[in-house]
Input
Amino acid sequence: MEDIHLMKGNEAIAHAAIRCGCDGYFGYPITPQSEILETLMEEQPWDSTGMVCLQAESEVAAINMVFGGASCGKKVMTSSSSPGVSLKQEGISYLCGADLPCLIVNVMRGGPGLGTIQPSQSDYFQSTKGGGHGDYHLIVLAPNSVQEMADFVDLGFDLSFKYRIPALILTDGVIGQMMEKLRLPAFKPRATDEEIAAKCPWSLSGRTNKRPQNIISSLELDPAIMEKRNLERHERYRKVEAAEVRYDTFMCDDAEFLIVAFGCAARICQKSVELLREQGIKAGLLRPITLWPFPYKAIEGYCRQVRSILTVELNAGQMVEDVRLAVEGKVPVSHYGRMGGIVPAPEEIVEALKKNF
Amino acid sequence: MNNPIIAPENLVYEKSKLIKDNVMHYCPGCSHGTVHHIIAEVIEEMGMEDKAMGVAPVGCAVFIYKYIDVDFAESAHGRAPALATAMKRLRPDKLVFTYQGDGDLAAIGTAETIHACNRGENIAIIFINNGIYGMTGGQMAPTTLNAMKTSTCPYGRNVALNGYPLKITNLLAELEGTCYVTRQSVHTAVAVKKTKKAIRKAFENSMEGKGTSIVEVVSTCNSGWKMSPVQANRWMVENMFPFFPLGDLKDK
Ligand SMILES: Cc1ncc(C[n+]2csc(CCOP(=O)(O)OP(=O)(O)O)c2C)c(N)n1
Ligand code: SF4
Ligand SMILES: [Mg+2]
Output
């Protein structure tokens, strides 16, 4: 029997976490993502898989619990929405500095400040360019469906452990709250202590079998060693950039006008492309799935084919900067965005694209 | 150096096998080094080196893992109890402890401290209260005594400006989640013995799942206090102890 369900994106994340062998979730309630914590507490996975779930006293505590769990080589995660993710930035920077794997979910809402509980994509800069202090990157995955919300939990953990870089699922209130059909992933057992010791020899467990001491730290006072550690981390970033760029295209083969959009904006733009095609305008859509590493090359490749590029985002124009970097002035790039929690209609985007030629 | 007194048969003290040979960076007379030795001895005597996982603070003891030879995670400033919470819940058979200064535990990390204690996390918290920010050069701490001079209250702590010194340990003793809360010191051989007993009890409590144990060690920071080690000890007895009296605050 196929494991087909109808659920919200947020619920899909919770179920996928239990099924992929996640060891621990630590979170603090905030709209529009509280269903993740609520679903986990309802499912009580500590009784089934042994997964630890804890409502922390703040996002600061939650991300530092993630640091503690990740130090032990465990598959641990947290989720929040924009204001809470701002609070997590200190911990995220420390996780990156200590080269710890983990999964963070940001179901974005509009800001700045308390902003709105309505959906937004305004944390693109924060997610892809740093956010916390120091020279670091997260592996940023942008799902555009409930199915991908579920699938990217396991993918996020896999990439994060492979490269020892925290992974971030960057999504928004639309994808988090909408209900769709999805196929839940099959159950995977949690890793045993022996498997963790083999896979993460750096992890803390007590000096089991008299092994030498393990230390998880982001601190180093010797500049030469600190630089070396940073260079080693950036070498891993180069590997991720070479191997893990993911994107999707829709009707791009003969496109003369390219739309670039991610997450819920890409869902809307798909409809806009269809409407444009009905009007005889050859539009296509490129949807970055990894926002870091960003599909610079793929976008650059379309410069020889398309007349112009339009980015559509639920913000004032953030990803458009990366698109411009990819294009390097070869074709005109413009941005269409809505803010404040307003989700544009496909027709608006059609008009925005037509204004460009 | 050929002192005939230094001979194996005259040995009265041997450092714990879990104390590494690295030269400690602490100022001579600082309490941190003494407490490190005690922790190492207790872990060794309990035979727990294969189970111990410590959380280092941000403060003078930031390099504790260079001195005590067990697994350590280095926390962000004040967040050690949050790390320890997850470490213990995910590895419940291990001995998880934090080591924190007064700025770390009672200022920036107050929320993490209170909530870990209130949940009754099965961890031990070793709290070095020296009434000052040692690491950053002697600024006012939440535990700085009234009228005590630091670089950020150079005319003495003024409660009208800075509020009152915080007896955080008394507060923690009020919480249902704590099982053992004690205030000790390491200025004399007897005090060292008592602190060692307290730390052992705290470690045993966490392995027995009794809840959170807190061992506060009223300590000297002779550099920050701008005193000689001997003066600092005397000043601590005369000024710190009346406000932070030693003894058990809770033992259940
Ligand atoms: C977020 C953050 N704020 C400030 C600092 C600077 N800082 C480092 S240690 C410290 C205070 C340490 O005092 P305490 O916890 O009492 O430890 P002690 O050095 O006295 O043992 C401060 C403010 C920091 N490292 N991180
Ligand atoms: S500054 Fe104070 S706390 Fe730090 S090592 Fe020196 S005496 Fe100890
Ligand atoms: Mg201090």
User: Anything to note?
Assistant: The first helix of chain B runs from residue 31 to 46.
